[in-house]
C-alpha cells in the first residue's frame, strides 16, 4: 500500500513514546506493514522545556503540540501522535485530527505518600499538581490541603514525591496503564464525582488535511465510539472557549442503543464554586450535545463567574 516511510512525530517522554509505539503497532497490524515502514521522530515541545511555571501561565493548551504541529506543516513528519487532552480546540490551518484510538481508562488516580486516599490525608497535607482542574476539585474535597504546582512528565512528578516535595500527586490512570505503572496508584477516583479532563485517556492522530495516504492508513485504526465521545467533550470545551485557565471536566459515555450521556463541569480555581450538567442525546449529535452542555454551565455560572481570574 505504501512504499514511502511513514514518519511519526511525538514528544520524547516515556508516555509519549508508548503512545507512538501503540499507534505504530496498530497501523502495522491493520495494514500488514513491517516496523521498517515507520520512523519515529522525537520532538521537544515548550511544555517539555518550561517546567517552572503552571501550565495556565505559560500558554495553556497547545504547549505540548506546537512544535510537533510545525513539523507536520513543514512535512518533516506525516503523523503526529498526541494525548487528546493536551490538544487545543482550534487546530493550526491545514491540520486535522484524522483518528482517535480506542480510549483507555478515563479515571484519575491519587498517588499518596502520607496516606493512600485523599480522605485520610492529614490536615494541611501538601499535594502537587499542575492541572487547574485537579487542583480545584481537590480543594473542593479538602479545602485544608496545600496544593502546589507540580510540572514535568510522569517520571519527574514521581521523583518529586520521592524527594519529599509533596505528600501526594494526581495522575491519569491511562498514562500509568500505558507505561505498565498502575502499581503506583493508591486510590482510583470515581469519575462521577471526580470527572476527567475532556479527552483524557484518548490518543489522537493529527495529520495534514489532504494527505490521502495518511488518511486511508489511520482510518483503519480509528475508533468510532471514542470519536463520538471526544466530539462531545471537545465541543463542550470549545463552548467554554477552551481556556486552560478554567478548571473544566467532561466525560461522555456511550450506551449500546446509540445514545450518549455527557457530564460536564466547571469550577472556580479555589474550588469554592462548581457548576455541572448532565445531558443525554444521540451519539450522532455529539457536537450539539457538547455545545448545549457548555451553555448549561455557562448559564448556571452567570457572567461574574469568570471575572477576576480567567483570561
Ligand atoms: N498533560 C500531561 C498528560 N497528558 C495526557 C496524560 C495522561 C494520558 C491521557 O490522558 O491519555 C498526561 C499525564 C497525566 O495527566 O497523568
From TrEMBL:
Q: Which cofactor does it need?
A: dipyrromethane
Q: Where is the Porphobilinogen deaminase C-terminal domain?
A: 229-296
One annotated GO biological process: protoporphyrinogen IX biosynthetic process
Q: Which reaction is catalysed here?
A: 4 porphobilinogen + H2O = hydroxymethylbilane + 4 NH4(+)
Modified sites of kind S-(dipyrrolylmethanemethyl)cysteine: 244
Q: Name one GO molecular function term.
A: hydroxymethylbilane synthase activity
Which part of the chain is the Porphobilinogen deaminase N-terminal domain? 6-215
Q: Which domain of life is it from?
A: Bacteria
Q: Which UniProt keywords apply?
A: Porphyrin biosynthesis, Transferase
Q: How does it assemble?
A: Monomer.
| General function of this protein | Tetrapolymerization of the monopyrrole PBG into the hydroxymethylbilane pre-uroporphyrinogen in several discrete steps.
The record's annotation in NCBIfam families points to: hemC
Family, per entry: Belongs to the HMBS family.
What else the UniProt entry mentions is:
The porphobilinogen subunits are added to the dipyrromethane group.
- The molecule here is called Porphobilinogen deaminase
The lineage is:
Bacteria, Pseudomonadati, Pseudomonadota, Alphaproteobacteria, Hyphomicrobiales
Q: Which gene encodes it?
A: hemC
Amino acid at each position: 500500500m505504501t512504499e514511502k516511510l511513514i514518519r511519526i512525530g511525538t514528544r520524547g517522554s516515556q508516555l509519549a513514546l508508548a503512545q507512538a509505539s501503540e499507534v505504530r503497532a496498530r497501523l502495522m497490524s491493520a495494514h500488514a506493514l513491517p516496523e521498517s515502514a515507520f520512523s519515529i521522530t522525537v520532538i521537544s515541545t515548550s511544555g517539555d522545556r518550561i517546567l517552572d511555571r503552571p501550565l495556565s501561565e505559560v500558554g495553556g493548551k497547545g504547549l505540548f503540540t506546537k512544535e510537533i504541529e510545525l513539523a507536520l506543516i513543514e512535512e518533516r513528519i506525516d503523523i503526529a501522535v498526541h494525548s487528546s487532552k493536551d490538544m487545543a480546540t482550534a487546530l493550526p490551518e491545514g491540520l486535522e485530527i484524522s483518528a482517535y484510538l480506542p480510549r483507555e481508562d478515563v479515571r484519575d488516580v491519587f498517588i499518596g505518600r502520607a496516606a493512600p486516599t485523599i480522605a485520610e490525608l492529614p490536615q494541611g497535607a501538601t499535594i502537587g499538581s499542575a492541572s487547574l482542574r485537579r487542583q480545584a476539585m481537590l480543594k473542593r474535597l479538602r479545602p485544608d490541603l496545600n496544593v502546589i504546582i507540580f510540572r514535568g512528565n510522569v517520571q519527574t512528578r514521581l521523583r518529586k514525591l520521592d524527594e519529599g516535595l509533596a505528600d501526594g500527586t494526581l495522575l491519569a490512570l491511562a498514562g500509568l496503564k500505558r507505561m505498565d505503572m498502575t502499581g503506583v496508584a493508591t486510590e482510583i477516583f470515581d469519575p462521577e464525582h471526580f470527572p476527567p479532563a475532556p479527552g483524557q485517556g484518548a490518543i489522537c492522530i493529527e495529520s495534514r488535511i489532504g494527505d490521502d495516504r495518511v488518511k486511508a492508513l489511520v482510518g483503519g485504526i480509528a475508533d468510532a465510539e471514542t470519536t463520538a465521545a471526544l466530539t462531545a467533550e471537545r465541543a463542550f470545551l470549545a463552548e467554554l472557549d477552551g481556556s486552560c485557565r478554567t478548571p473544566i471536566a467532561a466525560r461522555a459515555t456511550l450506551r449500546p442503543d446509540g445514545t450518549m450521556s455527557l457530564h460536564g463541569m466547571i469550577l472556580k480555581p479555589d474550588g469554592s464554586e462548581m457548576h455541572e450538567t448532565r445531558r443525554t442525546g444521540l451519539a450522532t449529535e455529539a457536537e450539539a450535545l457538547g455545545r448545549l452542555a457548555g451553555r448549561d454551565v455557562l448559564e448556571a455560572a452567570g457572567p461574574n463567574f469568570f471575572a477576576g481570574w480567567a483570561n
